[in-house]
Specification:
Elements lengths: L10 H9 L2 H10 L11 E2 L7 E12 L16 H8 L4 E6 L7 E3 L1 H9 L4 E4 L2 E2 L2 H4 L6 E3 L1 E2 L8 E6 L3 E3 L2 E3 L4 E5 L2 E5 L4 H23 L12 H13 L5
Parallel strand pairs: 2-3, 3-5, 4-6, 5-7, 6-8
Antiparallel strand pairs: 1-7, 2-9, 2-12, 10-11, 12-13
Helix pairs in contact: 1-6, 2-6
Length: about 240
């Protein structure tokens, strides 16, 4: 499949979004009219792994069919699921469209281990996983809806790589940015990464200031949301901070 190369994302923008909570990012996307960016039901299952941050590499499943999805499929090294695992690169997150169906797993420990060794940025599915006890120990950020011992062939047929998909009820396009934390995963459309990054950084700074005031006993009125006096105090604090290059 030929793909149009995408311009690299700015490392400073990636750093800003990597430091922002998914709550902050969804709020900023909401302000731009995007209300369906948080993947429903998808939870972090690898507590030892870092936060999720990476560009979407997509895999689409359709419902399995009994005469096609048989155990000898596993002998095919060019099976789309195996190709996805071998082709997803550093800085990319393999995002799998399971149509929200979890009776059969979408992947297992061996495939996720291979992705981890190859330096992938993470794995996200709106389906389930098998071998969950081993997966939980991986250093790879992994998000799923739960566990299932059943092989993917019982319910899923892998068909497409690097096409627009739905995951957790959200449209995900190849190259979109996925950010994940303890709350779940948010998808940032690639063309909005720079503007959302700047706004998320500012929101995080302001909310850190507000949280400090609330912790010191300030009431919500005038503090959250901040009135002009609180915003003035925030600006004065920011101006007093040392300038960093």
């Amino acid at each position: 499949m030929s793909e149009t190369p995408q311009a690299p994302l700015d490392p400073d923008d990636l750093a800003a979004l990597g430091a922002a909570s998914t709550a902050t990012i969804t709020t900023q996307l909401f302000g731009h009219g995007l209300r369906n960016t948080f993947l429903a039901g998808v939870q972090h299952v690898t507590p030892r792994a870092p936060r999720l941050l990476g560009e979407a590499f997509t895999l689409r499943y359709i419902p399995a069919r009994e005469d096609i999805d048989t155990l000898d499929v596993y002998d095919d090294y060019d099976h789309p699921q195996r190709r996805a695992v071998e082709e997803v690169g550093p800085g990319q997150v393999l995002v799998v469209d399971c149509r929200g169906q979890g009776r059969a797993a979408s992947a297992g420990h061996i495939l996720l281990t291979r992705m981890s060794v190859r330096g992938a940025a993470g794995f996200v599915t709106d389906g389930t996983l098998r071998d969950m006890e081993e997966i939980r120990r991986l250093p790879l950020p992994v998000f799923a809806t739960g566990a299932s011992a059943m092989t993917n062939l019982a319910q899923h047929h892998a068909v497409d790589l690097q096409v627009p998909i739905g995951c957790g009820g959200v449209a995900v396009y190849p190259g979109d940015l996925l950010v994940g934390d303890a709350d779940g995963v948010v998808c940032v459309p690639r063309h909005l990464v720079a503007v959302i990054a700047r706004q998320a950084r500012e929101q995080e700074r302001l909310e850190t200031f507000i949280t400090g005031r609330v912790a010191e006993g300030a009431p919500l009125r005038g503090t959250y949301p901040p009135d002009s006096a609180t915003r003035h105090a925030y600006r004065r604090e920011q101006e007093a901070l040392p300038v960093t290059e």
